Amino acid sequence: MQFFSSIRKVLVAAALTLIPASSFAGVLISVNVAPPALPVYTQPLCPGDGYIWTPGYWAWGPEGYYWVPGVWVQPPTAGVLWTPGYWGWTSGAYIFHAGYWGPHIGFYGGVNYGFGYTGVGYEGGYWNHGVFAYNRSVNNINIVNVHNVYTKTVVVNNYNRVSFNGGNGGIRAVESVQERAAFNEHHFQPTGNQLSHEQFARQDRAQLASVNNGRPQMVAARTPEAYHSVAQQHAANFNNNRENVPAPQARPQAQANTQQSHPAPQSRPQPQNHEQPQEHHQGGGEHGHPDGHDGHGGR
Q1: Residue 248 clears pLDDT 80, i.e. is over it
Q2: What is the biggest distance separating any 2 CA atoms in the chain, rounded to whole angstroms?
């Protein structure tokens, strides 16, 4: 089809100068290919104190977009928050700006990832003297496992599930002065656990948008390790199914009939009797920091 023939994956060296250093790794540019809408899902229960929710997102691999499940992860150090990655339309291409850890939340395209990530800042919690406090209004919290909680209602102005900024149909959000300042602060790159998590999703064919039509089989997991076992099982099932596909049989060769000089008469086909025919809740609308939506507090 002409539409698919127009799709091409390119790595544009000149465009790399437009990409912040914190999002340099894993950048892949797709021309005229926007990521699918964000799926709706329910956040898994928080494993315990000190974990921070990192929302799921569409990443790009050799076979197109694939969904990286949202998971609870432990930050690289106390006092930092997660700025999610996002797809942005720049110079005729969709460019992925990878997420990062920092003392304040930066710009993530205005995308409403839910669960406190409303498109601007973070309302899911904040640091208070080295201890993270969780907003129960937007997080799935069991007070038996998590002890530092509060409740604050969060208002969401962006209820759509668009997963990219700019371009045709994209979100029209612009980076604020505060978000630019947050971007210029000292950052931590995604942890090794996060990078491993993305690689597991990359190898899981069930996560491919071309396979699941934008409805991933695994949208979220409690921890990266919880998803990894599922991804490995998906891979094993795929390999087993591929091995069990029967090999195509060779078509029989036509043989010449040397015993007849004339074709044999064909019998008339007999009349046949024909039987008659018988008559998944993502926080797209969730949003808590009591004193602001940055989520940053005293360490």
Answers
A1: no
A2: 101
pLDDT value of position 283: 44
**Distance between CA 60 and CA 27 in Å, rounded?**
9
Half-sphere exposure of 22 (CA within 13 A, CB side): 25
CA atoms within 13 Å, Cβ hemisphere of 53: 33
pTM of the model: 0.74
pLDDT of 99 over the 80 cut: yes
Q: Rounding to the nearest 10 degrees, give the CA dihedral for residues 168, 285, 119, 296.
A: -170
Other residues' Cβ atoms within 10 Å of the Cβ of residue 31: 13
Alpha-helical runs (H) found in the chain: 2-5, 177-183, 192-202, 209-212, 224-243
Orientation angle between helical segments 224-243 and 192-202, nearest 10 degrees? 20
